[in-house]
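Re: beginner question about structure tokens

> Can someone show what the tokenized structure looks like for a real chain? I only ever see the sequence side.

Sure, here's an example I had lying around. Input first:
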Amino acid sequence: MTVATATQEKTITVNIDGQAVEALSGATILEVAREAGIRIPTLCHHPRLSVVGSCRVCMVTVEGMKGVVPACATPVRDGMVIKTDTPEVLAARRMAVELLLSTHPLDCEDCESSGKCELQALAIELEVEEPRFGRSLEKKPVDDRHPFLLHDHNKCILCSRCVRACREIAVNDVWCFSGRSSGASIATFFDKPMENAGCLSCGECVSLCPTGALTTKLEKPVVPSGEVRVTRTTCPWCGVGCTIDLHTAGNKIIEVTSPPEAPANKGSLCVKGRYGYEFVNHPSRLTKPLIRVKPKGEGNYHEETWHMDFREASWNEALNLVAQRLAEIKEKSGPESLAGFSSAKTTNEDNYVMQRFVRQVLGSNNIDHCARL
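And the corresponding structure tokens:
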């Protein structure tokens, strides 16, 4: 064990709002407070991202230090006395929120992120109804060039969570800061359309945006939050096994997200996992077995020349027909004339049963798997 590791793992005691809390040396005030169940609000901070301390919402006071300090970027030390709810702290947080709202649209009721917006929730918590400062009325155009995403510059608070998410999680580096001061914005290199700047449409930036600056273009019905059901399951698109949450209303998927505690993907998804769900309720999707039939009046043509006419059947009828035809082919041409092709959209257990069926029932080793979608 190195000296640095030993120092980092040293246990110390700090006092937060009169509560003695044990912490590891090197942890930040924010991390220690959250571990102790003490809430400190944030906007630019996210546990999956690096620390920038730009929003100034997580300010606290520390005995012996002048003014307020950012909890997300201040490491604890032994015996530190911290206050998270003094009048000075609350005034600093209100000031930060008011400054953000001075250039932010206030039409929350028309925003897709209303009810989920972290800035909106913080303004309500701090009782900030109208900023005291003069508001900027300049309206910037919404970038809708991406097939899945909308980028509304007017709602951006420059927290850089999208920039860091793309760089540190997706490792793609599509987003960057452009301009300075009041002219600063989040943009792509030379302001290219996102997909031309290397965007993979994973939606990582959208999932971590605290406001409505980055949203999806996929049509979502307006549904009261109490009518939305969330079902945790596994993504069907490949063999990685990403955990997803299906947000459904009226037996229809309206959104797909992923929990940060997901063991395989830690909340991240690819474009198919996050946006490729419309096939579930597509009108062309088969919901019953179909059996091919010979059209009337066609004569006794060989079955390969029949037109593709089908009729609905029960599962028992369809499975019996499949079993009968497989037995006929095996009897006529031998087991090696049969093959199985399994799918990554099913579970490991289903795929195991499939290969056992092909090898032991059909007697063939011709089995493959489509884990290359």
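Each token stands for a local structural state, so reading them left to right follows the chain. The longest strand covers residues 243-249.
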